[in-house]
Amino acid sequence: xxxxxxxxxxxxxxxxxxxxxxxxxxxxxxxxxxxxxxxxxxxxxxxxxxxxxxxxxxxxxxxxxxxxxxxxxxxxxxxxxxxxxxxxxxxxx
Length: 93
Prior knowledge:
The protein is α+β, with helices and mostly antiparallel strands. The protein has one domain. It has two helices and three strands. Strands 1-2-3 form a three-stranded mixed sheet, with helices on both faces. The model is unreliable at 80-87 (pLDDT under 50).
């Protein structure tokens, strides 16, 4: 059965995919950024420049943590392929 996705959901999916591409480019350029992510953790990317998506992704990370998963939150600049200046890493769970 196909799931219908509304325009708003599709926009969030596109923005999360763009964050994933940016993070992948960062990891290819500097694989050491992966060292901070615990083995088996679920990675949640949080954009600095997109308040709505940041809130949704942080909420999803918290739900995963409450469900017993180890999560790792990584902040990224939403408008460029560079990391936010503060590094923005944190693992919870």
